[in-house]
Design goal:
The chain has 139 residues and is an alpha+beta fold. The chain has four helices and five strands; from the N terminus they run ααββαβαββ. The chain has helices spanning 8-11, 26-38, 75-82, 98-105; strands at residues 49-56, 65-73, 87-91, 128-129, 135-136.
Length: 139
């Protein structure tokens, strides 16, 4: 994550319609900033986490998606891999481990609530903010 990481979405033109393409939580950017500040020998691109990618799932029905996980990747690599996905988010394990996220997502309906979202930061870490401004399990 470079100093311009928060503007990566604009640089790569990642936004697609109403859905924010890069839904990486602010907590992950903050965790990286803390780690880099505390360990000057580490650069942001050396910090690995995991990616969550919302991808089409035609086997599930029309317009259905599913979430695919990729472990041990940097934020930059997550952005590259997420380019053609419906949405993606990079997670640092200090914020939530991949096992925590998988367990939480097994509880169907855990993402649905009456709150509206403008960004995925307003949803639980393992949920997506969709084009209807609702927190959902899958887009």
């Amino acid at each position: 994550m470079s100093a311009n990481a928060k503007t990566h979405d604009e640089e790569c033109q990642c936004s697609q319609g109403e859905i924010t393409h890069d839904q990486t939580p602010d907590a992950c950017f903050e965790a990286v900033q803390r780690l880099v500040r505390d360990r000057p020998d580490v650069t942001p691109d050396q910090l690995l986490g995991y990616g969550m990618f919302s991808v089409p799932a035609p086997e599930l029905g029309p317009l259905a998606t599913k979430t695919v996980y990729v472990e041990s990747i940097s934020y930059e690599e997550c952005c590259r891999r997420g380019h053609l996905c419906t949405a993606f988010k990079w997670m640092h394990p200090s914020v939530a481990t991949i096992d925590d996220v998988r367990r939480a997502r097994e509880t169907r309906g855990v993402c649905y609530d009456s709150r509206r979202c403008q960004t995925s930061n307003e949803c639980r870490l393992f949920c997506w903010c969709n084009g209807n401004k609702k927190c959902v399990q899958d887009l």
